[in-house]
Amino acid sequence: MVFYQRGDILLRAGTLVSRVDILKLEACNSQKKLPFWASALGTFLPLLILTLLFIIYLSHFHTYTFSYPQNYVFIFLTLLILMVLTKLTTLFTSFSGYLIPISMVGILITSIMNRRIALITTLLAALYVTYLTNFQMPLFVFYVVSGSLGIWVGMRAHKRGNLFLYSLLLGGINVVVFLCCQ
Predict the structure, then answer these.
(1) Cα separation of 150 and 102, whole Å?
(2) What's the rounded mean pLDDT across residues 111-127?
(3) How far apart are CA 75 and CA 56, in angstroms?
(4) How buried is 175 (Cβ within 10 angstroms: 0-12 exposed, 13-18 middle, 19+ buried)?
(5) What are the phi and psi torsion angles at 159 (to 5°)?
(6) What whole-number distance in Å separates Cα of residue 54 and Cα of residue 6?
(7) Structural contact between residues 76 and 124, judged by C-beta atoms closer than 8 angstroms
(8) Which is nearest to 78 in space by CA: 114, 58, 102?
(9) CA dist 155 to 67, 161, 169, 174, Å?
(10) Which of 34, 67, 121, 181 could form a disulfide with 38 if both were Cys (CB 3.0 to 4.6 A apart)?
(11) How confident is the model at residue 1 (pLDDT cuts 50, 70, 90)?
C-alpha cells in the first residue's frame, strides 16, 4: 500500500490524466486520517517530555535561580504557549514561520530570570518551533538570531520606554535577518 502525505504532487499541471493517475487519486482519498487528538498528541508529547527533562536539568544545576517554583511554571507555560501558537499557525493559516515571536522568550526570561537560562530556553524554543515547522534550516537560523537578540534586548532594557525602543530595533534587525534568509 502506498501512503501519500500533504504536499505530495499527484498530478502535474498540463499533463493528461491516465489510469495510473486515477488510481493515485483513489488511493489518496481512501487513506485513513488520524483523529486530531492523536496528531496533537504525537506532536506535543515528545516536546513536553523534552521540556520536563529541561525543567529537571534546571532544578538540579541552576538551583540558585529557581528558589521559587513559579519560575518553573513560567518557563513551562512560555514554551507551551509558543508551541501551541506555532502549531495553530502552521495548521490553520498560511502565515510564514518567520512571524512566530521567538524573541519574546528571550526578552521575558531575561527580564525575569537571567541571560544564561534565557539562552538555553531560547535555543530549546528555536528547536521546538523548527520541529513544528518541518525542520526548515533557514527558520532555525532566524529563530536563533532573533532569540539571541531578544536576550540582548532584555539585558539592555531597564525601563519600559527603553524596552519599546530596543524592541523596535529588534524588529528592524529581524527584517534584515529575514531578508538574508530568503
Answers:
(1) 8
(2) 90
(3) 12
(4) exposed
(5) -130, 165
(6) 32
(7) no
(8) 102
(9) 21, 14, 14, 18
(10) 34
(11) low
> What is the separation, in whole angstroms, between the first and last Cα of the chain?
38
- What is the H or E stretch that residue 77 is in? helix 69-92
Query: For residue 71, what is its C-alpha cell?
Result: 519560575
Distance CA 110, CA 116 (A): 8
- pTM (predicted TM-score): 0.73
Query: What long-range pairs does 115-120 form, CB within 8 A, spacing at least 24?
Result: 115/151, 115/154, 115/155, 116/62, 117/58, 117/62, 117/65, 117/75, 118/151, 118/154, 119/148, 119/151, 120/54
Q: Which residues of 78-115 are buried (b: 16+ CB within 10 A; e: fewer)?
A: bbeebbebbbebbeeeeeebbebbbbbbbbbbbbebbb
Mean pLDDT of the chain: 82
Which grid coordinates are listed for 41? Answer: 498528541
